[in-house]
Design brief:
OB fold (Dihydrolipoamide Acetyltransferase, E2P); 5-stranded mixed barrel
Amino acid sequence: MLSKNSKPICKAALVAGLTIATATQALALSCVPMGPGDVYRIVSDSEDPFLVIEGRVSFDETLLPQYLDANPRATEKPTEIPAQVTGLLLGERMFDQPVEGEITLEAHCLGPWCGSLVSGARYLFFARQTEDRVVAVVEPCGGFFFSAEDGSAGDTVLQCHLGGICPSQLPESLEGAVTPLAED
């Protein structure tokens, strides 16, 4: 299915991606704006094997989690969604390894905010490879998925991958950011 020749790119990234989202108030979700260079740096420092893929992701959009006031606890656990990907895998020097196969989308919600994607759209994304499957996290703040329609996300990742300037979209300071309240 997916090639193992790509450079492994972290459990830390998964945790970082999910915890970087910060709620400023109970009624609003404020996300730290991470770009593809930021995520590349996080996952490249990880011990977990990550794949970087640029391609089309197809899946049943009706399986994406939807928050309902009548059942707010229904979206507390991630929803696994089978998906198909067709595209190119990042190799040693470029996106040059054709990839076509099944992946699992792991869609998360943070309170009433749920991650979403558009089936059939072209994305650059970071996916964790386990022994038996490839998992790509879909979270409310974007995190691991970037539009690849104009090619700029792929260009950024290639710059980083080849040791060039790896641009960041993170703010210089997180001063004033409030973390979500801990569960009682």
